[in-house]
Amino acid sequence: MADFLQTITSSLKGALSSFEKKPDSVIGIDIGGSSIKVVQLKKEGGKIVLETYGAVSLGPYADQESGQLPNLDVETLATAIQDVLTEAHTTTMSTGFSIQSGASLIFMLDLPHVKESEYAKIVPTEARKYIPVPLSEVSLDWWVVPENEYEGETAKRSQVLVVAVRNDTLQQYRDIVTAMPITSKLYELEIFSIIRSSFNHELEPIIVLDMGARSTRIAIIEYGVVRSFQTVNRGSHQISKTLATSLNISFDKAEALKKKSGIHESEEYPEAQKVINSSLRYIFSEVNSVLLDYEKEYHKTIGAMYLSGGGVNMPGFTDELRKEFKFPVSIVDPFAKTVYPDFLKNILTESGPDFAVAAGVALKQL
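The structure assignment produced for this chain is given below.
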C-alpha cells in the first residue's frame, strides 16, 4: 500500500504530485456518505479554470431516499462515479480521490529530536498508543513539522504529524479505480484537500468544522499544519433522521424541512427548531472540547472558524455558531482560486462548501 500513502505524504508536505507530465485537465472525486462530488479543473494561461462540476446522491442506488447513507459495494460505487462523470460532461480520465476521515486517524506526536532515519523506529511505537486496531491493519505515515512552522518548542523536541489509514479502505479505492476506465495517482485525506482549496497560509490559528452527512470533522490549523483533528460520528443525516422520528414524518420531508427552515422556527413544525438545536448541542460541545484542549496545550486562542461540507448550509447554522463561540465564523469558498463564468457566482457560493474536498483534490494535481 506504499504507493497510496506516498501521495498522502506529499500532501502533508505541500509538495506537488510526482506525475511525469501534468495532464491538461484533472478531476477531483469526493466519495461522501450520501453523495459523490466531482470537480474538473485545468490550468490555462497561468490561471486555474473550473471546467465542470457535479454531484450524485447515493441513496437511489440502494433504493433509498436521497440523503440516506447506503452501504454500497465497489461495483455500485463505480457505477455511481461513472454516472456523475457522464452527467457533468467531464473530458479527462486523470483523477484523484479523497479518503474519508472515518477510516483514518490524524494526530500529533511530541518526540525527542533525533536523526530523521530514527523516526522509522520511534513513530510506530509511539503511534500504537493512539491507534485502536493492530498496526498491521493500517498504513502509517508521518511528517516532522519544520521548527519554523511552530513556536514555543525547543530543539530538543520535535512535532511529528502522523496519519494512519485502514488498509481495507485503501484497497477499496484501488478496486474502484480498477473497475473504471480512469487513472488515479492521488489519494488524499479530506482535511488536506479542504486546506488546499479554501485557505491561503493564514498566520493565526483557525478551526475548521466540516459537516458531512455521516460525520463532522473538527480540525485546528496553524501555519497550514493540522494541530488537532477529531471526527464526530454525527452529521447532517443524523439531524434529518432525528427530525423524522421526533415529528413522525418521512425522511424526505425531514430533509426538506431541515434545508428550508434549519435552526429557524418553522410555522408548520414549530417543535423542529428545538429538535435541531438539541442535535447540534453534541457537536458544539465537541468543538468546545477541541478548543479547550488546544488552548491548554499551546497557550493560544483561535482567531476564526471556517465551515465546509453540505451540512453547514442549513439556515441559521452560521449565526448559531457565532453566538456560541464569539469569534468570526465564515463559510469556505473553494472556488475562489479558480476562474469561472460570472453567472455561476451565486450558485457556486451556495454550493461551494459541499465541493471543498473535491476542489482540493483537483487542485493538488495541477
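Interim note for the steering committee: The radius of gyration is 20 Å. The first helix runs from residue 2 to 13.
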